[in-house]
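Page 37, continued from 36.
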C-alpha cells in the first residue's frame, strides 16, 4: 500500500474513532433501533436469517446488523463497538477508491481524490451516527474497482452484496450494467456480462 494512502487511512481512523462515545453524538435521529437490533444479535438474543431483507424497521437487510454485531463482539458490545464498525468499513473504502482512481487516471489524482474523500465532513458525520446508510459505499466502490481491474466475477459478487447492506447500494448493479455496455466492445460484452452475472447470482439467489 502507498505510504501516503496508509497515512490518510490511519488519520481517518484516529480522527473518527477517538470521540465515538462523546455525548454530542449520543442521540441523532432514529439510529438507536440499529444499535438495539445489532446488540441483540451480538448477545444471542436474536438470530434472524442472515439473508433476510426485513431487519431493522422491517426494511434494512439483516446482514447489515450481523456485521455490526460481529464488530461489537470484537470491540465491545456498547456504543463504541457499534459505531466503530462503520468507521472501519468506511476506512477500507478509502483504499478501494485509491485503487479505482489510480486505474482510471494516475497516482497523483488518486492521492488527491483519496484525500478529499477521506476528509469529507458528511462521511465523518455519518460514521458517528451508527446508522447503516454509510455501508452503501463499500459494495459500490469495491464493485467498481473490481470491474475496472477486469475482475468481473468479483464485481458481480460485490454488486450483489449491495442487496444485503443498506438498500441504496442496490444501484451498484445498474451502474455496472451500464458500464458493461459503455466500456466494452460488442465482441466482449457477452463474456463480461456472463462473468459479472454469475458472480451476482452466486450471492443473490
Amino acid at each position: 500500500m502507498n505510504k501516503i494512502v496508509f497515512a490518510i487511512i490511519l488519520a481517518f481512523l484516529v480522527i473518527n474513532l477517538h470521540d465515538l462515545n462523546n455525548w454530542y453524538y449520543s442521540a441523532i435521529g432514529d439510529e438507536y433501533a440499529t444499535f438495539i437490533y445489532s446488540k441483540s444479535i451480538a448477545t444471542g438474543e436474536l438470530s434472524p436469517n442472515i439473508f433476510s431483507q426485513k431487519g431493522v424497521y422491517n426494511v434494512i437487510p439483516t446482514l447489515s446488523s450481523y456485521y455490526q454485531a460481529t464488530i461489537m463482539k470484537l470491540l465491545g458490545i456498547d456504543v463504541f463497538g457499534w459505531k466503530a464498525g462503520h468507521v472501519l468499513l468506511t476506512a477500507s473504502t478509502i483504499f478501494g477508491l485509491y485503487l479505482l482512481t489510480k486505474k482510471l487516471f494516475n497516482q497523483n489524482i488518486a492521492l488527491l481524490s483519496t484525500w478529499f474523500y477521506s476528509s469529507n465532513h458528511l462521511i465523518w458525520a455519518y460514521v458517528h451516527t451508527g446508522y447503516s446508510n454509510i455501508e452503501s459505499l463499500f459494495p459500490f466502490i469495491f464493485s467498481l474497482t473490481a470491474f475496472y481491474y477486469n475482475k468481473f466475477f468479483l464485481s458481480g459478487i460485490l454488486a450483489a452484496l449491495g442487496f444485503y447492506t443498506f438498500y441504496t447500494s442496490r444501484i451498484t448493479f445498474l451502474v455496472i450494467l451500464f458500464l458493461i455496455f459503455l466500456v466494452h466492445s460488442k465482441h466482449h460484452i457477452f463474456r463480461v456480462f456472463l462473468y459479472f452475472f454469475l458472480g451476482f447470482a452466486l450471492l443473490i439467489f
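The radius of gyration is 18 Å. Flag for discussion at group meeting. The mean pLDDT is 93.
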